[in-house]
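ESCALATION

Customer reports they have been waiting on this structure for their group meeting. Please prioritize. Original submission:
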Amino acid sequence: MGERRGGFTLTEVVVSMALAAFTVGGVIACYLMAAQRSEWTTASTAAHQLAMDRMEQLRAARWDDAAALTNELVEGEQWGAPTVLEVPQTGAGMLWATNRVTVTRLAVDRPVMLLRVDCVWSLAARGPFTNTLVSYRAPDQ
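Update from on-call: job pushed to the front of the queue and completed.
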C-alpha cells in the first residue's frame, strides 16, 4: 500500500479562504463605522461647545428693564456669522457651524426671558445637524 499524506482538500481550502475573507471584510466595515461615528461625535462636541460659549455670553449680558441703555439682550432671532469648528482635520475641508440665538420675553408682568441657542452644522454629505441649548434669565441673574 501507498503512503498516505495528510493535507487539505480543495474544498477545505476554499471554505477557509471564504471565512477569512468574511472576517477581514467585517473587521474593515466595523473600523470604518467606528471612524465615522468618532468624526460625528467630535464635530457634535465642538458644536455643543460653540453653543455653550454663546449661551454664556447671553447669560452674562446686562439686562435691566428700568434702564433701556443697559439692556444688552435684544428680543427676536439673530443669526451669527459662520464659524469654523475646532476639530482635528482629517479631510480636505473645514467644518463650519452657525449659531442662531432666539431671545423671547415669556410674560409682560414677569421679567423673564427664554434664551435659546441653536448651533447648526453639517459633515460632508451628511446633515445638517442642530445642537440646541435653552435657558431662562431674569434681570437679577
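Sent to customer with the following note: Strands lie at 76-79, 83-84, 96-105, 113-123, 126-137.
Escalation resolved.
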